[in-house]
Amino acid sequence: MRFTIKTFIPGKSPQEVFAHFGEPLFRVLSPGFPRITIIRFDGCRLNDETHIDMQFFGKRRWVSVNTAFSEKEQEIYFIDEGKTLPLGLKRWKHCHRVVAAPGGSIIRDEVEFDYGNFVLNVFWKIPLWIPFAMRPVKYRRFFEQLTAGNTLR
Predict the structure, then answer these.
(1) Start-to-end CA span in the chain (Å)
(2) Mean of per-residue pLDDT scores for the chain
(3) Cα separation, 33 vs 126, whole angstroms
(4) Per the structure, how many domains does the chain have?
(5) Does a structural domain hold residue 14?
(6) Taking the model in full, what pTM does it have?
(7) What confidence tier does 146 reach under pLDDT thresholds 50, 70, 90?
(8) Buried residues in 29-49 as b, exposed as e (16+ CB within 10 A)
(9) Of 98, 143, 130, which is closest to residue 6 (Cα–Cα)?
(10) Residue 151 and residue 153: Cα distance in Å, rounded?
(11) Counting C-beta atoms within 10 Å of the first and last residue's C-beta, which end of the chain has fewer, N or C?
């Protein structure tokens, strides 16, 4: 299964947007449910790893490794792929793409996942999509606070 969420960030180049792809933004984007604890966050470059514990019917570990990274003037992206996944998830691939657009940049969250079963894929699509559907508001608020010089929360 796949889905893509797009967010326009006005007045910022891909380089300006991507410069803030780090743990503070990761914390802002983390869903309120399930609650997560960041165990390790190396960053957004090739071979960096992210380890989180999710509180969802007990503690569940999620480990992703960044398997691709590219930086060009008009586009920057990295791909994280799940290595240790919770709740029967067989495959996770998330491309974080920042693309130049007139008047700013577009952040594209391109997600692919597979539970190994069509019925489970359909069942889990909405619960996996909802936190990403909330990201445009969170991204915009994060970058607006940066522009205003406010403390990030």
Answers:
(1) 32
(2) 93
(3) 14
(4) 1
(5) yes
(6) 0.91
(7) confident
(8) bbeeebebeeeeeebbeeebe
(9) 98
(10) 7
(11) C
